[in-house]
Amino acid sequence: MRSIRVLVLAAAIATAFVGGLAEAQVTAAAVQGDWSGSIMGTLPLVLHVRAGAAGALTATMDSPTQGAMGLQATNVTLTGAAFRFDVPSVKGSYEGTLGASGKTITGTWTQGQEEPLEWKQTRTGAEAAAEDARRAAELAKLKPSPIDGSWTGALSAGGQTLRLAFHFHAVPEGIAGTLDSLDQNAMGIPCTNIEVNGQKVTLTVPAVHGSYEGRLSADGKHIDGTWTQGSPLDLNLTKQ
After folding, report:
1. Which of 87, 128, 160, 220 is the most exposed place for a label (fewest CB within 10 A)?
2. What is the largest CA-CA distance in the chain?
3. Is 228 within 8 Å of 234 (Cβ atoms)?
4. Residues 229, 209: contact at Cβ < 8 Å?
5. Using one digit for the tens of pLDDT, what is the confidence trace for 80-102?
6. Contact between 189 and 180 (Cβ < 8 Å)
7. What domains does the chain contain, in order, with CATH numbers?
């Protein structure tokens, strides 16, 4: 009887070891890549998940029909099959479970209220890495735009100050950019329709229904202008 118990114990240890290895493999690679889904079947979303050299996950989310691309996700984790992330800029969060096939994630998007959201993989981690490398090589060949870099400024209203930071860089399609609202801890809010015509700079921020129009100084170090989000406010930016 004693030998039987030893064999059973050995089998249990082996099973636990294999299970732990499988979980490590899932954590390292299973959710990398690009995923598509929709809320209520009417609002399409795209999720881009990447893993750094140490295995830490990062992600951005696109809402194409709303013109909100590259919404920065935080707290991106995969624990066993449980996957979750937050999107602070829209006060949203997601919790789901990776399917056995590794091709779906089924769960719930919460933004004021809960909505079912299933992600389906459209590009594997290897495919996404190849596309990222191609894109990086393409960007490296581009000439910088007149506003490439980081710019900071502050809005003042009702005795309160709200610090903002814009980040711009040239892309094949023109200029890409994001907005950080530092005091609200809302980082990486996508900017769209970024244009520089002579000294005039314009852009929109769909996620917050905001827009900016300013004038670039002759030395390229300042943009003085107006931020509009319901009502216009002065917003002068300085290049960092």
Report:
1. 160
2. 89
3. no
4. yes
5. 999 999 999 889 999 999 999 99
6. yes
7. 28-138 (2.40.128), 142-239 (2.40.128.120)
